[in-house]
Specification:
Elements lengths: L5 H13 L3 H8 L12 H6 L6 H16 L1 H5 L1 H4 L6 H12 L7 H5 L6 H14 L5 H13 L7 H19 L15 E3 L4 H4 L2 H13 L4 E2 L11 H4 L2 H18 L3 E4 L3 H9 L1 H5 L6 E4 H11 L13 E3 L14 H9 L3 E2 L24 H18 L3 E3 L3 H13 L5 E3 L1 H8 L4
Parallel strand pairs: 1-2, 1-3, 3-4, 5-6, 5-7, 7-8
Helix pairs in contact: 1-9, 4-9, 7-9, 11-13, 13-22, 18-19, 19-22, 20-21
Amino acid sequence: MAVLSEKNIHKGLSILQNMQDSKLITHLNSCVHCGLCADSCMYYLTYKEARFVPAKKVDFISSIYKRYYTSIGKYAPFLAKAKELDETSSAEMVDLFFGACTLCGRCSLHCSIGVDIAFLVRTGRVMLAEMGLIPASIQSTVDASIQTGNNMGITTEEFVDTIKWLEDDLRDELNDESVTIPLDRKDRNILYTLNPREPKFFPLSISAMAKIFHVARESWTLSTSMYDITNYGFFTGSKGEATMIAKRLQEEVGTLNAKELILAECGHGSRAFRWEGPNYLAKKFDFKTRTSVELIAHYIKSGRIKVDKNKLKQKITLHDPCNLVRNGGIVMEQRYILDQVANDFVEMTPHGIDNFCCGGGGGQLAMSEYNERRMGIGGRKADQISNTGARVVVTPCHNCVDQLIQLNSHYKLNVQVKTLAEIVADAIIVD
């Protein structure tokens, strides 16, 4: 790491100073070191290093707070176990808060007194962002979003060509020339978003959702200028950049005058816009926002689409994305859908809000410097999948899809990985 200037150190400390409210102080000082969080954390369970225990991360940021904002920390830092914010401690913060946490929130769920450990880790990331210490690999993803409108740097021409190709292909599949994947249409009921990994690497997931919209006779559109649901500023702790990305999507809803924004299968993207977006922008949205998971469940329940569960012959299991389920409250909708489309659906153990992260969350998938560690903690998810005996793993999150595909290869699981839209499109009845 480069030598830190006093100015940058002050910027990092100013985050703690400006956040001196009841939430920060309560969570910094409430840990009783019971150890329950250790058994919740994939990093500690995999590597058995004491520094990976979530409570140790709480202690780390608490020690910096004590050093600068408590009397005992200022005058007797040894007694308070207070820590200076310098090059050494900053480097350790980067490794712990970026390289050893997926922000999954499982430790917070299991905390005996409810310490929001993920909130404190995010606070540490915000400090590092102010100090200019965001890992370069994940920052490049944010830079691409700011500069091009999507995190993959896809040009508008490339995007439109992909959509037109998918539209032609879907018309052939359904033998119906009326099939369309509309672009930039105003006054539609729905503006649908995408994870840029879809047009870049997984275009069939776009076709799957377009097929569902067609059968449901939905009034919808994509935008060519702002379709990216992801927001890696949420992971880096750069609130200014996260706000800019959220604002662009909010403004595009207004530009196209859509009644509702449907968030694609992306756990962190859904959370960053639906729940954090109003905080970033300091105002409520004047349009309805739902995830595609909720929308598909509504289509089936209301009879707008019909499915045949006998079309899917293989055993299916479900991976719950952390930000959609544990941190977003969408738990039963995907299970209702899979019960409707599959004869042989089996849960992982544990599952639901207690499920283990795939290992790619928190921006880990974007940080190449931690690839080995990411694949290591993913072994627990690989074991969960293997223990179900399923041949198909469904997950409503494209970051999770990518991580699971890599785990499938690395751990030789011999499974298929699909999005929820893809599995529904396989079972849908086309009239």
